[in-house]
Amino acid sequence: MGEETAAAPSADLMVDLIISLDGYASADGWPGWWGLEGPEYLAWLDQEGQKDYTILMGANTYRLMSGMSAEAAAADSGFSTEEEASLTGLAAVPKVVFSSTLQEPLAWPNSELVSGDAIEAVQEMKRTRTGTLSTLGSLSLSRSLLTAGLVDRFRLVVFPVITGKTGSERIYDGYPDVALEMVDSRTFDGRLQLLEYVPTLLDGPPSRGPK
Protein backbone atom coordinates (compact mmCIF):
# COMPACT_ATOMS: atom_id res chain seq x y z
CA MET A 1 0.00 0.00 0.00
CA GLY A 2 1.23 3.47 -0.79
CA GLU A 3 2.01 6.03 1.85
CA GLU A 4 -0.87 8.25 2.88
CA THR A 5 -0.51 11.88 1.90
CA ALA A 6 -1.06 14.33 4.72
CA ALA A 7 -3.95 16.70 4.14
CA ALA A 8 -2.93 20.23 3.22
CA PRO A 9 -3.68 22.84 5.88
CA SER A 10 -6.74 24.99 5.31
CA ALA A 11 -8.70 27.50 7.34
CA ASP A 12 -12.34 28.56 7.16
CA LEU A 13 -13.18 32.26 7.05
CA MET A 14 -16.09 33.60 9.11
CA VAL A 15 -17.52 37.10 9.10
CA ASP A 16 -18.76 37.61 12.67
CA LEU A 17 -20.94 40.65 13.42
CA ILE A 18 -23.23 42.03 16.11
CA ILE A 19 -26.11 44.12 14.81
CA SER A 20 -29.27 45.93 15.79
CA LEU A 21 -32.50 44.63 14.30
CA ASP A 22 -32.35 47.39 11.66
CA GLY A 23 -28.80 46.54 10.63
CA TYR A 24 -26.51 48.95 12.49
CA ALA A 25 -23.24 48.03 14.16
CA SER A 26 -23.56 50.72 16.85
CA ALA A 27 -25.63 53.74 17.84
CA ASP A 28 -24.75 57.18 19.15
CA GLY A 29 -25.19 57.43 22.93
CA TRP A 30 -25.90 53.72 23.42
CA PRO A 31 -23.51 51.59 25.50
CA GLY A 32 -21.52 48.72 24.04
CA TRP A 33 -23.65 45.71 23.11
CA TRP A 34 -26.53 48.20 23.44
CA GLY A 35 -26.41 47.45 27.18
CA LEU A 36 -28.15 44.11 26.61
CA GLU A 37 -25.35 41.59 27.07
CA GLY A 38 -26.27 38.91 29.58
CA PRO A 39 -24.55 36.01 31.36
CA GLU A 40 -25.39 33.40 28.69
CA TYR A 41 -24.03 35.57 25.89
CA LEU A 42 -20.88 36.53 27.80
CA ALA A 43 -20.25 32.89 28.75
CA TRP A 44 -20.61 31.91 25.09
CA LEU A 45 -18.11 34.63 24.11
CA ASP A 46 -15.68 33.20 26.65
CA GLN A 47 -16.13 29.69 25.22
CA GLU A 48 -15.61 30.97 21.69
CA GLY A 49 -12.40 32.60 22.86
CA GLN A 50 -11.00 29.17 23.74
CA LYS A 51 -11.35 27.89 20.17
CA ASP A 52 -8.71 27.88 17.44
CA TYR A 53 -9.48 31.32 16.05
CA THR A 54 -7.31 33.89 14.36
CA ILE A 55 -9.00 37.29 14.49
CA LEU A 56 -8.87 39.59 11.46
CA MET A 57 -9.41 43.34 11.81
CA GLY A 58 -8.67 46.75 10.38
CA ALA A 59 -6.80 49.61 12.01
CA ASN A 60 -9.84 51.35 13.55
CA THR A 61 -11.07 48.16 15.19
CA TYR A 62 -7.55 47.43 16.42
CA ARG A 63 -7.28 50.82 18.09
CA LEU A 64 -10.73 50.49 19.70
CA MET A 65 -10.45 46.91 20.91
CA SER A 66 -6.83 47.07 22.08
CA GLY A 67 -7.74 50.14 24.11
CA MET A 68 -10.76 48.42 25.64
CA SER A 69 -8.68 45.32 26.43
CA ALA A 70 -6.06 47.43 28.20
CA GLU A 71 -8.78 49.34 30.09
CA ALA A 72 -10.43 46.09 31.19
CA ALA A 73 -7.09 44.88 32.60
CA ALA A 74 -6.68 48.00 34.74
CA ALA A 75 -7.94 48.34 38.30
CA ASP A 76 -11.46 49.76 38.68
CA SER A 77 -12.09 49.45 34.95
CA GLY A 78 -15.85 49.84 35.26
CA PHE A 79 -16.46 46.64 33.29
CA SER A 80 -18.28 43.68 34.79
CA THR A 81 -16.28 40.57 35.70
CA GLU A 82 -17.58 38.79 32.60
CA GLU A 83 -16.78 41.76 30.34
CA GLU A 84 -13.28 42.01 31.79
CA ALA A 85 -12.65 38.32 31.12
CA SER A 86 -13.91 38.60 27.54
CA LEU A 87 -11.87 41.72 26.72
CA THR A 88 -8.63 40.77 28.45
CA GLY A 89 -8.82 37.27 26.97
CA LEU A 90 -8.44 38.77 23.51
CA ALA A 91 -4.78 39.52 24.28
CA ALA A 92 -3.94 35.81 24.02
CA VAL A 93 -5.80 35.26 20.73
CA PRO A 94 -3.78 35.45 17.47
CA LYS A 95 -4.74 38.61 15.61
CA VAL A 96 -3.98 39.88 12.11
CA VAL A 97 -4.36 43.63 11.56
CA PHE A 98 -4.66 45.03 8.04
CA SER A 99 -3.39 48.60 7.90
CA SER A 100 -1.13 50.87 5.85
CA THR A 101 -0.90 53.43 8.67
CA LEU A 102 -0.04 51.42 11.80
CA GLN A 103 3.60 50.69 12.56
CA GLU A 104 5.29 47.63 14.00
CA PRO A 105 5.68 46.51 16.69
CA LEU A 106 2.01 46.51 17.64
CA ALA A 107 1.46 46.96 21.38
CA TRP A 108 -1.41 44.44 21.71
CA PRO A 109 0.10 40.98 22.30
CA ASN A 110 -0.14 38.36 19.54
CA SER A 111 -0.93 40.93 16.86
CA GLU A 112 0.54 40.61 13.36
CA LEU A 113 0.53 43.61 11.01
CA VAL A 114 -0.20 43.17 7.28
CA SER A 115 0.28 46.30 5.20
CA GLY A 116 -0.33 44.71 1.78
CA ASP A 117 -3.52 43.73 -0.01
CA ALA A 118 -5.97 42.16 2.45
CA ILE A 119 -7.69 39.93 -0.12
CA GLU A 120 -4.43 38.39 -1.29
CA ALA A 121 -3.24 37.96 2.30
CA VAL A 122 -6.44 36.21 3.39
CA GLN A 123 -6.38 33.94 0.35
CA GLU A 124 -2.88 32.85 1.38
CA MET A 125 -3.92 32.45 5.03
CA LYS A 126 -6.83 30.20 4.03
CA ARG A 127 -4.39 28.00 2.10
CA THR A 128 -1.65 27.80 4.73
CA ARG A 129 -3.31 28.07 8.16
CA THR A 130 -5.71 25.91 10.11
CA GLY A 131 -8.66 26.61 12.40
CA THR A 132 -10.99 29.55 11.80
CA LEU A 133 -10.18 33.03 10.56
CA SER A 134 -12.81 35.35 12.04
CA THR A 135 -13.39 39.06 11.53
CA LEU A 136 -13.96 41.34 14.51
CA GLY A 137 -15.98 44.44 13.62
CA SER A 138 -14.12 45.92 10.63
CA LEU A 139 -17.15 46.43 8.40
CA SER A 140 -15.29 47.44 5.23
CA LEU A 141 -12.90 44.49 5.57
CA SER A 142 -15.81 42.08 6.09
CA ARG A 143 -17.64 43.50 3.05
CA SER A 144 -14.52 43.19 0.87
CA LEU A 145 -13.90 39.59 1.93
CA LEU A 146 -17.52 38.63 1.26
CA THR A 147 -17.54 40.36 -2.13
CA ALA A 148 -14.36 38.49 -3.06
CA GLY A 149 -16.11 35.17 -2.37
CA LEU A 150 -13.76 34.17 0.44
CA VAL A 151 -16.29 33.86 3.30
CA ASP A 152 -17.30 30.35 4.34
CA ARG A 153 -19.65 31.34 7.17
CA PHE A 154 -21.60 34.50 7.98
CA ARG A 155 -22.56 34.78 11.66
CA LEU A 156 -24.71 37.45 13.29
CA VAL A 157 -25.84 38.12 16.82
CA VAL A 158 -28.96 40.26 16.52
CA PHE A 159 -29.76 42.56 19.45
CA PRO A 160 -33.45 43.45 19.95
CA VAL A 161 -33.21 47.19 19.35
CA ILE A 162 -34.13 49.50 16.47
CA THR A 163 -31.81 52.51 16.30
CA GLY A 164 -33.47 54.41 13.49
CA LYS A 165 -32.53 57.86 14.84
CA THR A 166 -29.17 57.14 16.44
CA GLY A 167 -27.80 54.14 14.51
CA SER A 168 -24.37 54.44 12.92
CA GLU A 169 -22.20 52.15 10.80
CA ARG A 170 -24.79 50.57 8.53
CA ILE A 171 -23.60 47.04 7.95
CA TYR A 172 -25.13 46.00 4.64
CA ASP A 173 -24.58 49.10 2.50
CA GLY A 174 -22.43 48.18 -0.49
CA TYR A 175 -22.97 44.43 -0.13
CA PRO A 176 -23.58 42.24 -3.17
CA ASP A 177 -26.70 40.09 -3.37
CA VAL A 178 -26.13 37.02 -1.18
CA ALA A 179 -28.14 33.83 -0.60
CA LEU A 180 -27.85 32.50 2.96
CA GLU A 181 -28.27 28.90 4.06
CA MET A 182 -28.87 28.71 7.82
CA VAL A 183 -26.64 26.19 9.60
CA ASP A 184 -27.08 27.25 13.25
CA SER A 185 -29.24 29.41 15.48
CA ARG A 186 -29.78 29.93 19.20
CA THR A 187 -31.07 32.48 21.70
CA PHE A 188 -29.02 34.03 24.53
CA ASP A 189 -30.59 35.35 27.73
CA GLY A 190 -34.07 35.17 26.19
CA ARG A 191 -33.41 38.14 23.89
CA LEU A 192 -30.29 37.93 21.71
CA GLN A 193 -30.51 35.81 18.56
CA LEU A 194 -27.50 34.08 16.98
CA LEU A 195 -27.88 33.29 13.28
CA GLU A 196 -25.18 31.46 11.33
CA TYR A 197 -25.25 30.96 7.56
CA VAL A 198 -23.25 29.64 4.62
CA PRO A 199 -23.24 32.52 2.09
CA THR A 200 -23.45 32.21 -1.69
CA LEU A 201 -22.84 35.26 -3.86
CA LEU A 202 -25.52 36.02 -6.46
CA ASP A 203 -25.31 38.02 -9.69
CA GLY A 204 -28.76 39.39 -8.89
CA PRO A 205 -32.17 38.22 -7.74
CA PRO A 206 -32.56 34.45 -8.22
CA SER A 207 -34.71 33.27 -11.10
CA ARG A 208 -38.12 31.99 -10.14
CA GLY A 209 -37.86 29.36 -12.87
CA PRO A 210 -40.78 27.91 -14.83
CA LYS A 211 -44.17 27.66 -13.15
From TrEMBL:
SUPFAM superfamilies to which the protein is assigned, alphabetical: Dihydrofolate reductase-like (SSF53597)
One Pfam entry name: RibD_C
InterPro entries to which the protein is assigned, alphabetical: DHFR-like_dom_sf (IPR024072), RibDG_C (IPR002734), Riboflavin_Biosynth_HTPR (IPR050765)
Superkingdom of origin: Bacteria
Domain Bacterial bifunctional deaminase-reductase C-terminal: 13-193
Family matches, as PANTHER family: BIFUNCTIONAL DEAMINASE-REDUCTASE DOMAIN PROTEIN, DIHYDROFOLATE REDUCTASE FAMILY PROTEIN (AFU_ORTHOLOGUE AFUA_8G06820)
Name by which UniProt lists this protein: Dihydrofolate reductase family protein
Source species of the chain: Arthrobacter sulfonylureivorans
